[in-house]
Amino acid sequence: MPSVPNDRRVTVYDIANHLNMSASTVSRVLNNSTLVGSETRERILQAADELGYLRRRIRRHGGRTILNIALFLPYGGNNYVHLFYDAAEFIHALDEGFGDVRANIVSVVNGPDVQIFDQKKLGDIDACVFGFTSPRPESLAVIEERAIPVVLINRTDPKRNYVVSDHAGGMALLLDELVAGEPEVRPCYLGFPVIPQVSELRLQGLIAAVKRRGVTFGRDDVVNVEQLSQITPALIERLLGQGYTALVCFNDVLAVYTYQCALGMGLRVPRDFSLTGFDNSPVRSLISEPIVSVDLAVPQMGYHAGRWLRDAIIEKTLTSLHLHLPGDLVPGTTVRGTSPAGNTTKES
Question: Which of 35, 161, 235, 298 has its CA 20 to 30 A from that of 4?
Answer without folding.
Answer: 35
